[in-house]
Write a structure and sequence with these properties.
Layout (H helix, E strand, L loop, with lengths): L1 E5 L6 H10 L3 E6 L2 H7 L5 E4 L5 H7 L5 E4 L3 H16 L8 E5 L12 H16 L3 E6 L10 E2 L2 E5 L12 H11 L9 E4 L7 H12 L6 E3 L1 H10 L3 H13 L9 H7 L6 H7 L3
Helix pairs in contact: 1-6, 4-5, 7-11, 8-9
């Protein structure tokens, strides 16, 4: 299929793009920076420069695409899904056969007070009402977020009051599972939960990554409110976003059962230790 990918340059978008390409799909990427996208992907990936929140840009990128994968940040995803559904209803996506969308493991009605959850629930509802065949992926925390805590210039562990255990998964495993769903129509109409093979708290995961990869650095401990303050002072929105998520998980937990996703698409089997080792730890 020709697959349009929104968010291809992101942490979860890149492995999906690579895995779909490896399986013979034709890939078209809509990216704000064509130069950045071109540096990440081989020449046979078609790059369309544009904004996923722009109806005009989406309309330019959509022709002849049989599938769309949506893996966008919170501030973009709802608008993009609204535009995609509108284009489909207007007859501008005649060849569209399926959409895959990245939601989250704790996205459910009781957590709608958190703006990220509300956005994702609204996007899921739009897809459901559209009648377009789709699969919703509900992943927990990806291992690739850990370097955001430990970098050469700083090492920080953000600790909530009662950090829950989370089944961290590797982005490459996620890419493989999404690509597999494109070859199995049993995945359509489902919410599939993606959980890795072992449960570990965020502070313990950060400490493990720190000790293996940056043992010479001192690890600074922050509460979420302190991390948000540091993020504001240092103009680091990614740190602030992670701090908000950690504070959120003080009030909820990992939800969903990954059994169905594992049976359909093959379980994510990369352990945190294997992932760290592959990065030189």
């Amino acid at each position: 299929m020709r697959v349009l990918i929104l968010g291809a340059t992101g942490t979860l978008g890149r492995p999906v793009t690579r895995c779909l390409l490896d399986r013979g799909h034709r890939i078209r990427v809509l990216a704000r920076s064509a130069r950045k996208a071109r540096s990440m992907f081989p020449a046979d990936v078609e790059i369309v420069e544009g904004d996923s929140t722009s109806l005009t840009d989406l309309a330019r990128a959509l022709p002849k695409c049989e599938a769309i994968h949506v893996s966008l940040p919170t501030e973009s995803e709802l608008t993009a899904v609204e535009h995609l559904v509108g284009l489909a209803e207007a007859g501008s996506a005649e060849e569209l056969r399926r959409i895959s969308y990245v939601s989250g493991t704790s996205v459910r009605e009781e957590n709608r007070w958190f703006d990220v959850v509300d956005v994702k629930m609204r996007a899921e509802d739009l897809l459901e009402r559209s009648g377009i065949p789709h699969t919703v992926f509900c992943p927990t925390w990806v291992m690739e977020v850990l370097p955001n805590f430990v970098r050469p210039e700083r090492a920080v562990v953000i600790e909530g009051k009662t950090p829950p255990g989370l089944h961290f998964f590797a982005a490459d495993d996620f890419g493989r599972m999404v690509a597999s769903s494109y070859e199995d129509d049993r995945s359509l109409g489902k919410r599939l939960f993606i959980h890795g093979p072992q449960s570990i708290t965020i502070p313990d995961a950060v400490r493990g990554f720190h000790e293996a990869c940056f043992p010479q650095m001192k690890l600074k401990r922050l509460r979420p409110w302190q991390a948000r303050m540091v993020a504001k002072l240092t103009n680091n929105p990614s740190l602030g976003a992670v701090a908000r998520l950690i504070a959120y998980f003080d009030k909820t937990e990992e939800h969903g059962d990954p059994v169905e996703a594992n049976a359909l698409l093959g379980a994510p089997n990369t352990t945190l230790e294997e992932w760290i080792h592959a990065r030189g730890g």
